Amino acid sequence: MVTAADRESRIKGAILGMYVGDALAMPVHWYYDRQALERDYGQVRGYLAPKNPHPDSILWRSTYTPINTKADILHGQERFWGRAGVHYHQFLEAGENTLNLKLCTLLLNSLLENNGYNADAYLADYIAFLTTAGSHRDTYVEEYHRHFFNNFSSGKPPRACGVMEKHISGIIGMVPLAVFYVDDPDLARRAAFEHLGHTHLGERMVAACEFLMDVLLPVLSGEGLSDVITDKVRRQDNPLLGHPLVRWLDDPDEIVVGRRLSSACYVEDALPAIAYLALKYHDDAARGLIANTNLGGDNAGRGAVLGALLGAANGHGAFPESWIKGLRHPPPEELIR
Question: Do 332 and 326 touch, CB atoms closer than 8 A?
Fold first, then answer.
């Protein structure tokens, strides 16, 4: 039986791990050339500031033209789109989080202010946040935001602006709901699936959310991370886990994530990559997040989810104090003090 102190440490660990995993990976986010990553940043073991040029940036081929002022979510950053070598997070500082984690803070604050999940309140906060200049400093705004605001600015109600999605960043927002409703797993799941459906539609996203809730909730309640994931792999009850992850544990990470599984952002590869890394580093959170960061690709999306799992398994003391103190914008203080 998990003690109250252990439960509290696991909750703090899940929250902090989400922020730490994202912040570590932020400067080398979407580096697919690992030699370039090491050339530009060395072996990343702590927080660093991003540098231009980013050799693997695809902002040169990204476009977004708001339909009207209600869809203006770039606030001047669009001048960097269509250019080669622009870092997605060029204006962030060492230890700062990407937009996805800023929105997790928004959700955590909404949960605290409303004493639970209120979809309308959160969506109002979300719309206000992204349509307010200066609310964040990310140059890149992911596809789902652009689709949402095109739908919203066309007159659709906020609850009907989600689109079919496939990116791992879509399940990061489930972590705050698992943590907030840890004592009521059924309510946690209902809230998570409702929240997911406002921005990320589709069977693949549902399967990714199911994996996260099926693993994170029991681990927060005291079960072992390795045991829970191994059991899920054995039962093959999730369509995203059709890989021999346990057999791969003795192989080099760069073979598993990069060759067998793409390091890209799509859930069909990113989700099993997270499961593999969580299995391999289930008892060493810091080492696991360092490994994930230096594997490149969508290491920020993977890192936030992996950090939550490793933090839940090992408690908040599993992360170096320098990582916790180095967060530029940590989660709400009442949740981690």
Answer: no
- 3-state class of 257 per DSSP? strand
Q: Domain map of the chain by residue range?
A: 4-336
Instruction: Report how far residue 191's alpha carbon sits from residue 100's, in angstroms, rounded to the nearest whole number.
Output: 18
Q: Tokens 């030699």 appear where?
A: 35
> From the centroid of its chain, how far is CA 274?
11
Provide the CA 135 distance to its chain's centre, in angstroms.
19
Pairwise CA distance, residues 198 & 194, whole Å: 7
Residue type, 113: E
Q: Are 106 and 64 in contact (CB under 8 A)?
A: no
| Residue segments in the chain with a per-residue pLDDT below the cut of 70 | none
β partners of residue 297: 31
Token pair 């949960």 is found at 111
The verdict on domain 4-336 having CATH code 1.10.4080.10 is yes
97: DSSP letter: P
Amino acid at site 51: K
- pLDDT per residue as tens digits for the range 200-213: 999 999 999 999 99
Task: Give the predicted TM-score (pTM) of the model.
Answer: 0.98
CA 287, 20, 230, 268 dihedral sign is: negative
